[in-house]
Amino acid sequence: MRTAVFSTHKFEKEYLLQANAEKHELVLIEARLSETTASLAADCKAISIFTGDDASASVLEELHRLGVRHLALRSAGFNHVDLIKAKELNMQVSRVPSYSPHAIAEHTVALMLALNRKIIRAHDRVMDLNFSLDGLVGFDMNGKTVGIVGTGRIGAVLARILHGFGCHILAFDTQENEELKNKYGVEYTDYRTLCEGSDIITLHVPLTPQTHYLIDKECIGWMRPGTMLINTSRGGLVNTKAVIDALKTKHIGSFGLDVYEEEEGLFFEDHSEDILQDDTIARLMTFRNVLITSHQAFLTDTALQNIATTTIHNLDCFEKGKTCENEVNLQPDHV
Of 19, 135, 177, 272, which has fewest CB within 10 angstroms of its CB? Predict the structure, then answer.
């Protein structure tokens, strides 16, 4: 089956080709999917897209006109797809529900430790032959309270890791995980109590209309002065300008982010020769207590192999007309 693979990155190409084993005719396209590039899917019955691709209503209409009937997402999240329009057009959407919760959880901890122990600043000093320790004081993770917002696959792995550090763990989720409560002492509470009682807050929920700007001026006001905030989930969970204001007053003590609400067209690309046009992220980059990674939390060999394998499996199911366990529920209440 001829399939256009948009936003193909060098780091995933080998894994996709190996998983495909020449079963499908993969048309590897570096460009991201948009109204302008949708025509590249001509003669394709399916496409595969990444997190930064545009699968809005107008794009889906053009793809449908070209004959595309299946969207195989190389991601767990699907907030970049207009699911109502996809259902209206009878276009099937599949995803990779879980590729490696350990990869995301471990990167989350890496951000916490790097911010806490000021690893980047220390490294830069040593490269300048400055071996002073002034200004590099951190804190023991042991005994600190970490608030985990969302205890699905990733949040659950993170809770187990942080339990090993000796952290007290607060959690907020619509469904409580009994194993986390019984084995790791996780205490479920309401969102405000979590914000008020945590030294570190980390986000692990999908982006929906209900979770958009979960971190805003009001909830920042509930936080303890000096709270560390981590976001490795979706950029739209955080009102970045509100966080910048809190960083300026030191109410937020540090901020680690692997995702950014305006990352489209910025992350995954080399802009080293360009003039940065995004004033918000430019301001974030001026803070010594902010650590930004470019949506790389998922980037392990295990995760890439699982993403590729599941994506090809989803394409196989569609081509053979089989029910796919990874099909996205196209009900409006999931949008």
Answer: 272
In degrees, rounded to 5, the angle at the alpha carbon of residue 82 between the alpha carbons of residues 77 and 84 is 115
Residue 215's contacts (CB-CB under 8 Å, 6 or more residues apart) are: 201, 203, 229, 231, 237, 238, 239, 242, 243
Any idea where the domains of the chain sit in the sequence?
2-99+301-334, 101-292
263 is catalytic: yes
**Is 234 annotated as catalytic?**
yes
When the candidates are 3.40.50.2300, 3.40.50.720, 1.20.272.10, 3.30.70.870, the CATH number that belongs to 101-292 is: 3.40.50.720
Catalytically annotated residue among 153, 168, 204, 234: 234
295 is catalytic: yes
Residue 296 near residue 303, CB atoms below 8 Å: no
Catalytic-role residue among 32, 80, 153, 295 = 295
DSSP 202: E
Calculate the CA 7 to chain-centre distance: 16
Return the CATH class of domain 2-99+301-334: alpha beta
